[in-house]
Amino acid sequence: MRYYRDNSGSVYAISPIQTHEKEWVALTKKETEELLNPQPTNEQLAATARAERDRLIESVRWRIERHNDELALGSEPTEPLEPLLQYTQELRDIPQQEGFPTDIIWPEGI
User: Fold this and answer.
1) Among 35, 69, 101, 102, which residue's beta carbon has the most beta carbons within 10 A?
2) CA 54 to CA 66: how far, in whole Å?
3) pLDDT score at 4
4) Could you tell me the residue ranges of all domains in the chain?
5) Amino acid 24: pLDDT
6) Bridge partners of 14?
């Protein structure tokens, strides 16, 4: 498959058995790579990071709920609550990090 651009900037994919218009210009290998593998925008990177943050928070949510349930039942908690809360707060603070969304320092999991 070869890729061509016309005078208006539109891009066309042409198979080896097709012919392209004479005024079309073939894209370079680098242009083709950029076309087929575009870099994500900052908005896309931020959305991906927030989704990962939310997934990590959800992965420890059950442990926080277990702690609260154990206390409500008068049982000794299986683990301390503070490290779990600290971890979830560090995750919530990720969008405020300098360099977000391209340079993220993820907190160490617990």
Assistant:
1) 101
2) 19
3) 95
4) 2-36, 42-96
5) 95
6) 2
Q: Tokens in use for 11?
A: 């891009």
Structure tokens at 10: 């539109």
Specify the amino acid at residue 33: E
Q: Which tokens go with 87? A: 């971890």
Taking a C-beta distance cutoff of 8 angstroms, is the pair 88, 60 a contact?
yes
pLDDT of residue 57: 98
Q: Which residues of 24-45 are buried (b: 16+ CB within 10 A; e: fewer)?
A: beebeeeebeeeeeeeeeeeee
- Residue ranges in the chain whose pLDDT is less than 70: none
> What is the reported pTM?
0.72
**Total count of residues recorded for the chain:** 110
- Which residue do the tokens 């950029």 mark? 34
Residue 64: both structure tokens together: 């926080």
